[in-house]
Amino acid sequence: MAKDYVWYQDIPFPPVDIYPELIKTVHEELVLKDEDIITVTYPKSGTHWLIEVLSLIHTKGDPNWIRSVPTYVRSPWIDTASGYKFKVERKEGPPLISSHLPIQLFPKSFFTSKAKMIYVIRNPKDVLISGYYFWRVTNLSKKPESLEQYFEWFLQGHVPYGSWFDHVRGWMSMREKENVLVLSYEQMKKDPRSMVEKICGFLGKALEPRELDLVLENSSFQAMKENKMYNLPDVPEELVPAGIKITRKGITGDWKNHFTPAQTQAFEETFREKMAGLPPELFLWD
Ligand code: PPS
Questions:
Q1: Hey, which of 44, 137, 231 would you mutate to test ligand 1's pocket, going by the most ligand atoms within 8 Å of its Cβ?
Q2: What residues does the Sulfotransferase domain cover (predicted)?
Q3: How much is the ipTM here?
Q4: Which label site among 135, 180, 266, 268 has the fewest CB atoms less than 10 Å from its CB?
Q5: Ligand 1 nearest-atom number relative to CA 248
Q6: Which CATH superfamily is domain 6-282 in?
Q7: If DSSP states are collapsed to H, E and C, what string results for 144-180?
Q8: Residue nearest to atom 17 of ligand 1 (CA)
Q9: Residue of minimum CA distance from atom 3 in ligand 1
């Protein structure tokens, strides 16, 4: 059955595999290492895609690892109980980790470490649509009854991991740091090769041209759709019914097929108010 949120410090979280004491422990006690490579996103912004790219950069394009180990084991979400366990018990392997936490609840140890973080930002209107289609058919979180309802929840921040506006504003304060790279979903779609090159530069990794081609080939939307280790393997059917995939459409601008003119106007007003003062070049979408 669908559940309500669990709340911690006024942020709503999906209630499966997440609980307030865990978030507190992750925030206060989890020690991140300088060699950690962290994917941070607001949900539905391209998290899995970036993890696939990072995994493939690690294997120099060889798809064996991504095809044999689930995404959430390769790059555990530290804000879930199972992911936290994978992270603290992991003895070897690449130091990839993931999180959807807002900045104020992120492990404190990060802010004095040299761990590298990549934050992916996506057009929040598309984030809203992607989230609506995911949460309404899964039993991982509070289920919206209609897009109208979810639209209201989104503007209020009553959706998993809270307000998009607060999440992005919070993390954008780190964008000039040497160990933080901000990417956009839209840029990744437009020019994935340049994005992979940028990530390699940031991580100090070099790929041969053929290896770069393999990274791109194996992280394409189609390749990811077909990768059984990517689309929530092993998650019980009562939580994620068969056939539901993270890879839904993988396009930019799907919001245009859904928003009414009144919703577009209301959304843009909220955006202007909440994101005032941030440079417009951070928000490269239409
Ligand atoms: S989650 O559940 O919060 O971790 O979801 P997340 O991975 O952040 O985002 C899911 C959306 O990313 C799209 N996606 C991709 N787009 C383009 N190319 C590739 N390779 C790719 N992989 C995943 C996915 O389809 C979801 O967006 P929507 O709009 O729902 O299709």
A1: 44
A2: 34-278
A3: 0.99
A4: 268
A5: 31
A6: P-loop containing nucleotide triphosphate hydrolases (3.40.50.300)
A7: CCCHHHHHHHHHHCCCCCCCHHHHHHHHHCCCCCCCE
A8: 250
A9: 43
